[in-house]
Amino acid sequence: MYEEKKQQAKLLMAFKAEIDTIIELIETRKYINSIENILQSSLNAQAPSYFRIPISINLYTKTFEAHLKDVAMLPERVSKQIIRFYMLIFALSEDLSTLAGTNQMPFQDFLNVLTTDIQLLHKVIFIGKDVSKLIDVEASYL
């Protein structure tokens, strides 16, 4: 039982480090500001603006990918938030990869995706910081 708790604590701290790093990258690289600028530029031009936001998500989610099966072994309230955080990150990455350099999407759809992704980035930051605090609390009980 002690070894299992010790493993859970280690896993929680690995997730915390990865989540904190993803949040730090989003904030430091100013992804929200960049997307807001692309949105404004597109509105001014009345056409989709070319852009590239460098989110190579597979570089930053190694812990999640390696321990996906182990997430269910973590306390339920933490595991749910961890999964939610990563699913939102994967969705954002997919959206931004799809939009990069495209001008084949209808203009209003392009604007809607950008607007939604700005909202999702805010949500990801909030959830990431929340789960990081939650991990600290849960790890202290293990």
Q: How would you describe the overall organization of this protein?
A:
With 142 residues, this protein is mainly α. It has one domain. Helix content is 75%, strand content 0%. It is built from 5 helices and no strands. Helix 2 packs antiparallel against helix 5 and helix 4 packs antiparallel against helix 5. The longest helix has 35 residues. It is elongated, with a radius of gyration of 17 Å. The N and C termini lie close together (10 Å). The mean pLDDT is 90.
Distinctive features:
5 helices
Summarize the helices and strands and which ones pair or pack.
Blueprint: H1 2-28, H2 31-45, H3 62-66, H4 76-99, H5 107-141
Helix pairs in contact: 1-5, 2-5, 4-5
Summarize, please:
By secondary structure, the chain is mainly α.
Low-confidence stretches: none
**Domain count:** 1
- SSE order: HHHHH
Number of strands: 0
Give the fraction of residues assigned to helices.
over 70%
What is the straight-line distance between the termini? 10 Å
**Proportion of residues in extended strands:** under 5%
User: On the 0-100 scale, what is the average pLDDT?
Assistant: 90
